[in-house]
Amino acid sequence: MPLLDVKNLKTHFHTRAGIVRAVDGVSFSVAPGEMLGIVGESGSGKSVANLSLLGLVPMPPGKIESGTAQFDGVDLLHCTNAQRRTIRGKKISMVFQDPMTALNPYLRIGDQIMEPLLIHENMSKADARARAVAMLKRVGIHDAERRLREYPHRFSGGMRQRVMIAMALITHPQLLIADEPTTALDVTVQAQILELLKTMQAELGMAVILITHDLGVIAESCDRVLVMYAGRIVESATVDDLFREPKHPYTRALLASIPATQEKGAQLYTIQGAPPDLTATMEGCPFAPRCEHAQPQCKIGPIPLAEIAPGHATACKRILAGEIT
Amino acid sequence: MSALLDVQSLRVHFPIVEGPVFNRRKSIVRAVDGVDLYIAPGETLGLVGESGCGKSTVARSIVQLVKPTSGAIRFNGQDLASISRTQLRTLRPSIQMVFQDPYASLNPRMTVFDAIAEPMIAHGLIKLSEASERVASLMARVGLAARWMRKYPHEFSGGQRQRIAIARALALRPKLIIADEPVSALDVSVQAQILNLIAELCREEKLALLLISHDLSVVKHLSDRIAVMYLGKIVELGRAEDIYHRPQHPYTRALINAVPIPDPTRKRDRAAVLLQGDPPSPIDPPQGCPFHPRCPHMQERCKQVVPPLEPHGENRVVACIRAEELQ
Fold first, then answer.
1. Which residue among A49, A175, B138, B325 has the highest number of C-beta atoms inside a 10 angstrom radius?
2. Which residue of B has its CA nearest to A160?
3. What pLDDT does B267 receive?
4. Which long-range contacts (C-beta less than 8 Å, at least 24 apart) are formed by A200-206?
């Protein structure tokens, strides 16, 4: 049984410029203990989908138009705020992209790490402090007793991200959502943080949703991966299958356009044009206007995600019909 | 072979003053601390390093946006520090810059035409009446439709804005382009378009390029040679393939190893080569080799001597006293 089961999630933003369909019919599930990667370019809806689950989308202008998200017997999209508060920060935690702004600059990091325990577990301050010290040591911060009393500005970017991870994991959540956790960091520090996430995942046996734009990060860390484009999932597969046999033309184009996979100096494959305007209603496949295999039938929708091999699903009509391989 | 750009023992130090009035402490940020490099005409040199290593300061001092503390920068044999302002002004068109953030580097109140035409008019290359023809051809050169000439930057996407910035840099027919993280603000699918454009322009216009990036895969893709910087110093410099496939400095090795590879079959045992800690502060750099506190091969003598940049094999210099034995 999946830990989290999201069905047909639609999150739209009602703005002056029109309705922005940021997430437009997304279904996926997360198994206990797995690391699920969500990859996509900016504006693909990968962050908004996850913020919707935790009730963190500003409403208005945002609105969850449809969908269910079953987690631990509760529908996250239709529960009361009181129910949501018992889950958020306790059973589901989140790590954000920018550790420079995600921590409160006015509070000592000790107070920030202890806060979830004081709220969710009714712990005494002394016990909470002991847990915080132990957690800081586990995420690799030396001299934890002293550093607990310091303010965020005394920490480097990598260290702050460790603090964020300690704060997220201190309640031993069943699911951690990490939204671009290493994008703001240097590569050598990024490698440390990814390694730390993997170790902590194994130690605590939690599931992780790792949101990133970097296919390299996906390849190194995740078990399974979803590829998002224009608010929809266009491909879902295990990491090995996705990189060995990408099915959807968008996934293929994305893989062919990164310099790391190409011969030095070779002309990089480019996807023509730009991602679609999400305020326009889209019939059919959102990638069709940029796809070199597109045919008139691709512009007639809807095109659901369907399995092409066990555990490997794609939302491309022509691939599913076997017209292109 | 005469170098187009020749930088010798460049040092850029920034003094900082902090603390309350009666207890002022003065310290010095050694942003660039003794950098030597040259670029031949038409050559692409990649400069990689992590944030704070001084790579952007090198770029900014070459175009004289910051004044070097010491050292010489020669362009076509002329020392930029000793020539007069008028002479400098005649040289400026030859070195042009493309910045990282196309949202910040274009004036929001200038149309594309204004942005591209301004440098040509300021340097007296063309008259206003001829400008629109020249701007149109430059826009076509970078893949933009000339009919968008009267639009403002906010009407364009990030990739298109970077194309405008490139057209503006090309306007003065430069010999050297300095591109400081030209694609790091862009999405992956757009990055490829801009990288292809830069490669094509350099090839066809015989431009020399100083490409600055934190992303080794981008730098490797375009560069003839690569210089790796750490804490204000170059620690390794050599041909791109050699640096990427046979790195010799422990820092270069760690840097290459830290870059995630989009291929799950090539997962490596990361923990074995994972660097500890963060890059140190350039305010108070460590004694001896700047990399020794994080280096897995550190020995006692690494703490005492600053390793000189010495030749190791063909066309390669490495600043590590143990480079020979570690091979």
1. A49
2. B278
3. 62
4. A200/A138, A200/A139, A200/A165, A200/A169, A201/A33, A201/A35, A201/A176, A203/A138, A204/A169, A204/A172, A205/A32, A205/A33, A206/A33, A206/A169, A206/A172, A206/A173, A206/A174, A206/A175, A206/A176
Task: Give the separation between CA B147 and CA B165, rounded to whole angstroms.
Answer: 17
Instruction: Establish if A151 touches chain B: CB-CB under 8 angstroms.
Output: no
The burial class, CB within 10 Å (0-12 / 13-18 / 19+), for B74 is middle
Question: Could you tell me the two tokens for A280?
Answer: 């326009």
Q: What's the length of chain A?
A: 325
Cα gap A53→B4, rounded to integer Å: 57
What would the mean pLDDT of B249-278 be, rounded to a whole number?
Answer: 76
- Chain A residues whose beta carbon lies within 8 Å of the beta carbon of residue B261: 216, 219-220, 260
Structural contact between residues A161 and A136, judged by C-beta atoms closer than 8 angstroms? no
**Chain A neighbors of B191, CB-CB under 8 A:** 257-258
Q: Verify whether the Cβ–Cβ distance A260 to B217 is below 8 Å.
A: yes
Nearest residue to A41 (alpha-carbon basis) of A276, A285, A311: A276
| pLDDT class of B44 with cuts at 50, 70, 90 | very high
CA distance B221 to B155: 31
Q: Which of A121, A111, A104 has its CA nearest to residue A172?
A: A121
Residues 6+ apart with CB under 8 A from B88: B64, B80
Interchain proximity B192–A269, CB inside 8 Å = yes
> Residue B218 is nearest to which of A213, A239, A259, comparing CB atoms?
A259
Query: Per the CB < 8 Å rule, is B187 touching A42?
Result: yes
Do the chains contact at A41 and B187, CB–CB below 8 Å?
A: yes
Query: Do B278 and A159 make contact, defined as CB atoms within 8 angstroms?
Result: yes
User: Which candidate, B10, B73, B76, places its Cα nearest to that of B41?
Assistant: B76
Structure token pair of residue B130: 């001829």
Q: How confident is the model at residue A91 (pLDDT cuts 50, 70, 90)?
A: very high
Helix, strand, coil shares, percent, chain B, to 5: 35, 25, 40
pTM of the shown model: 0.83
Looking at CA atoms only, how far is residue B81 from chain A in angstroms?
A: 33
ipTM higher than 0.90?
A: no
> pLDDT tens digits, residue range A114-145?
999 998 888 899 999 999 998 888 888 888 88
- The residue whose two tokens read 């997360």 is A30
The first and second tokens of residue A291, run together, are: 């796809």
How many C-beta neighbours within 10 Å does residue A295 have?
12
Residues with Cβ < 8 Å from B290, sequence gap 6 or more? B230, B231, B232, B233, B235, B280, B306
Cα B178–Cα B209–Cα B144 angle in degrees, nearest 5 = 80
Backbone angles phi, psi at A104, to 5 degrees: -80, 120
As a whole number of angstroms, the distance between CA A234 and CA A305 comes to 7
Best probe of the B interface among A270, A271, A278, by most B CBs < 10 A, is A270
pLDDT of residue A107: 92
Mean per-residue pLDDT, B28-55: 90
Distance from CA of A97 to the nearest CA of B (A): 15
pLDDT of A193 > 90? The answer is no
